[in-house]
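>> received
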Amino acid sequence: MPVKAPVVFVTIHAPGSNNNLEYKLNQGAPNPFYDQDKEFLAPNAANVAWLRQAFKTAKDTKSLGLKIFVQATMFEAFSEEVVGPTRSGFEEFISVLRPETKAFAGEVVMVSGDSHYMRVDKPLTDLYPACTAATGPCKPFEPALDARGNRVLNFTRVEVPGSADVHWALCHIRPNERNIFQFEFMIMPTVAATTGPSAVVTQPGGTMAVTTVESNGLLTLDGSQSSTTNGGDLSYFGSSAQGYPVAGIVRGDTATPTIQFVSRGNCEVALTVTDRTGANSTSAVTVRYQ
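>> returned
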């Protein structure tokens, strides 16, 4: 499992549909591929051992966080009656996850898909999820949200978009902040549209036509008309266009770079603008230095 800076990353093969335990029904009909839980027993034991190893690695490396990737929704779908089980396929996994998380000094994040509900929350508590009884058929413990026991505050669940909500989630890892894991959902537009930055660079007088520069070879461009539909500030980068003589550029990271021409002749100067999403656009002007 990779350890990057202050975080340990681990993947767990725990699918929905009760983690393949007693997967006897498929859409109400007998499941012809039910294999007497062979797809549950060995993988579940390996998952639990791998989870324990992940916490040990995080402690041994003094990591500030542990990020777990799974497919299943283990909370709302702790026991899925629709596939015919009598016990929860996640019971043992949760019984290890809960105490290991509480004993870990850092933050734990579980990223899942399955129902693709798009959420960031803290569902793990001292009592939830669980069966109401230790033996017999599992009846999930499902009290009101404010009656589920003490919340395990260093655990966060992130459920990614999918299915009807085709968007994506962005995770920031910031070890010097109070919460090292910070998330935001990046929502795709419902209708395709021209979005992003638009670079506009002009020469003195607002023209984009060829300008002749004489004497000292200095020319200040203006990119202040550049804009973006994504909001926020733009960053700027001035450069000589590929294939043209190299020019000196002063204040090339501003909207008004000054160009110092060295070689006489035609030169094309480009200004690239980048917005907060990383999207960029470039505009160029042609200048003749005599």
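>> The chain has two domains: 3-186, 197-289.
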